[in-house]
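Changelog note: in this version the structure field was regenerated for every chain. One regenerated record is shown below for reference.
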Amino acid sequence: MPNGAKSGDVKKVVLAYSGGLDTSVILRWLQDEYNCEVVTFTADLGQGEEIEPARAKAEAMGIKEIYIEDLREEFVRDYVFPMFRSNAIYEGTYLLGTSIARPLIAKRQIEIAKEVGADAVSHGATGKGNDQVRFELGYYGLNPDIKVIAPWREWDLNSRTKLIEYAQKHQIQVPKDKAGEPPYSTDANLLHISYEGKALEDPWTEPDENMFTRSVSPENAPDTPTIIEVEFEAGDPVAVDGEKLSPAALLTRLNELAGANGIGRIDIVENRFVGMKSRGVYETPGGTILLSARRAVESLVLDKGALHLKDELMPRYAELVYNGFWFSPEREMLQSAIDQSQTNVSGTVRLKLYKGNVIVLGRKSPNSLYDEDVVTFEEDTVYDQRDAEGFIKLNALRLRLAGKLQK
């Protein structure tokens, strides 16, 4: 198994570069400590910020090969939607917004490394979190021989103060909000935005309302509900209110509708893969709608056995994604089973969005297994209620035998 890179044995490295303080310091540190050529890669995953400024910052630091790519459609189509087919929720609450973005970034870094002849890749994840694992499991899964540089596990810049001092010493621009008290640590993409650190490190402290960027508070949401329809084909959403949309455009639309109605906020304490507990606050507006809508269609079209088995597999699938095993054979095996279950998951769901709530009003599907003739409380000719007696007695047999023994 390959080890991390050592100073002096790296010729060229592809850095996952946001253009922010941390990765700008990492860029200069790689140049100084490894004396190697650095290639920057900046991905637009729908984080809501301009990414072109990263080009100017990289050029100012002498970078000649700069990759800036809009990956929003690929992100939603090939990562978010497949994950949502499983209805994945980690520890009952988390819709895996950060987790699902890492394999795509890792994949493109490895592809770029091959294109430019780089022998190493680097990321800005710390040695305490999950992202270091997610990135590096992705790297090694796609290129077993790649060298990995994880500066936060190597350098002595182990505080915000030291990081800023290093930046100022090397004429690296420090954003105004970074120079004083550190802000919340955030990660954003088209699926979600996360907030950690600062006052949030105390799990008893309520989040500041001014912190949120993608949703109004439920209290300030409109008093009139919003009614929408979401259409699915073979397990994936394809239209909102009758308008066909691309994957990224559809999620963007749902984010807007949900955010305006105070939907998608959660405040959780989760168990990181590395072993510690972490408190995080997340906004996942459109994803929260999608989860409710998908389950509504599935309730009509999936056989009871398939639906229940899928629910049993989901926690395992969610944990694999959370822990960074997107490119593992077991995740791909589960994905194949999940995708098979989605063949008939087509239909339309009508939803009410109201003050933080997603309320299912109706659902229909051409593949529905729901039969009014069978379930009606009125007189019918397809179900003999006397058959239930034998069904109950057979299922009660073991209970009756155990009861006799106890007597």
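Spot check on this record: The domain at 12-72+100-182 is CATH 3.40.50.620 (Rossmann fold). The chain is about 40% helix and 20% strand.
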